[in-house]
Amino acid sequence: MELPQMKMTRILIPSLAPLALAVSGVASAGPSGYAPPPPPPDKQEFIVRVGASYVTPNSDRMTFVDSSLVFFDAFRATMDPEDEWGWNISGAWKATDHFSFELMYIDGDEHVGGNTHGFIELSGFDVDRIRNLAKFEPEMSTAMANWYPLDPSCMFQPYVGFGINYTDFGSESFRGIVREDLQDFGLRGRMSMGNSWGYTWQIGADFNFGHDSAWLVNVAALYLDSETDVRFDIIEDSTSPNPGRVVESYSGDYLYNPWVFNLSVGYKFAF
Fold first, then answer.
1. What CA–CA distance (Å, rounded) separates 88 from 102?
2. Positive or negative, the Cα torsion across 186, 71, 122, 252?
């Protein structure tokens, strides 16, 4: 004969099972009774910056040698370009919260400067009157990986980066009194500078206008390792007996190695 207590247990268990499942579902859903949404997927952020650059090139004492193999002489000269302003544009892909890959282009303004000795002595000019040997205009492109140490929720985002740079030199020519002295002797000059590959590092920071703002201000300091070949020819001009004849040719290596200081405005967006 079945006991009343056992019979009651068999009746209550099937009846209470759906109620227990419902209670456990409500408890896991939270106070509102709805299941919490899944965490949002990681966003890949992009930052575009445009601004001004202050370029401070290196002053370098160079050795120029006779590249025409005619006179077999050499002399020392100084390239001392003045600091100039330029502009920059960059794009950064922030694949994670703490790392980004950045491409930057910097267009420097025309550098003018350089005192020289020896070249004028070889050519018979007045050494004391020589100033501003050459002018040139650099264009610098960089590719860098950057590390952001702070949490992405911070409105102040410092970073450090390391990468490579390509520097191209354009608009090269002699300046001022050098051209005048050459003309007095029935000569003219032709100058050229090559391009350069080197390493680059930077330190910078983004200042966001607010947690929900897409706009920011950026400051950064970059160092570019850049060395180029400087070559110039002394040529007889059209008034000479042999117009176009190269009288002397010289070449030397110039360590450009500039510091660049950027002040930019940026805009960030995500997909």
1. 13
2. positive
Q: Give per-residue pLDDT as tens, 162-190.
A: 999 999 998 777 665 566 667 777 777 77
Q: Is residue 224 part of a domain?
A: yes
Q: What is the DSSP letter of 129?
A: G
167 in a domain, yes or no?
yes
User: Residues of 199-223 as b/e, b for ≥16 C-beta within 10 angstroms?
Assistant: ebbbebebebeeeeeeebebebebb
Q: How many domains does the chain have?
A: 1
CATH of the domain at 97: 2.40.160.20
DSSP structure string for 223-250:
EE--EEEEEEEEEE-TTSSSTT-EEEEE
Can you give the residue range of the structural domain that contains 87? 44-270
Report if residue 116 sits inside a domain: yes
Model pTM score? 0.74
- Evaluate if residue 125 carries a pLDDT over 50: no
Output the pLDDT for position 176. Answer: 59
Q: Does residue 24 belong to any structural domain of this protein?
A: no
